[in-house]
Request: fold
Amino acid sequence: MREYAEWAGLEKTAHWHAGLAWIMMDGKYFDAAIAEFKKALEMDSMAWVAQEGISRCYENLDEVRLALEWMTKAIENVPVNLSSLVPQRLLPQVATLLSRIRYFERAIKAWKEVWESHVYAMDHLKSYIRELHRAGQHQDLVDLVMQINGWTSDHEHCENFLVLFLISSHDKPHAFDAIGTAINTVDDSNARDTFLRACDFAITSADNIQAKADNPVPCTQIRINVAFFKYSFCDQTAEAITLWQQTLDLVNAYAASGGRLLLNARKECTNALCQIYFDSAVEANDRGEDPGQWVNLLKDRARFSLGVELANEDGHWVSGTGYASIIYGSWLRNHGGAEEEVWRECFQAAVAQGLDMLVDDDPVNDQVA
Reply:
């Protein structure tokens, strides 16, 4: 890298050394990059780009406190005409580092500042919520939810800022988990009802937004997240089942029309439903009642196509035989009185092999299983 940099014959200024150092850092030569960044600082002690680079190198070396120290120096030296970079690029890094060393109060303050500098940056709001959750600041989190519920959204389909945030959370329901934990911890029924109304509006808003798209795709994740919240925090099992089933119906209709299979959404809903069916069957069986309705529902979700693999929309491989089949096999084996040759059909070959390892006389391979 150095030979190529020197080949151009440019003057070795602080900028030259910092540029070479960033390339070294990208190549994961962190110690060499730090040395090069420090050469830049010898020539220009205010070179904040070099200080930022040293911070990121130390972070990659798990020297978090040193990384925090150097990022703080970089922030202090950012010129006024580039001050917008602090909340956009540097302060989020500070907040992340503070969180890693469990300085929660400072991390919360940093994420709050980052988010308030641009409130429509939903990833920063999610980070702020996550940090409040990790610190156990449940009342503050509930207050934040109620606050943004009162803000007007600039989106035509979202009646308030909370709804806009919910439809922007297209990943796993981490924010829903944090908010649900906070609401239940402080036992605020008004906040729970407010959030549930926002969830219902969010589903409608997401559908309306997608309906205007050139190639509309079913809004699956918002339904999955809301179902998770209702089931986990509101004791609304029937409502959650309805949403999971509705999502599966949308996925099936979309696939039938020539759309993608949306295997991740299909798998997530199926797994959730199967767990409820399994638990209900076990509870009914333990009470001496007929578990047949739950077992039949579980069986309908089971898949026996051993060895069949499909690629999901992201190109990752998803086995056609999954949790639905495994949990049905568990019922047959542990509660249904099925013969081994019957319940073993429900398990993937790898799972069956793992079970064999666990029950054989060799304790060494148990860890592998």
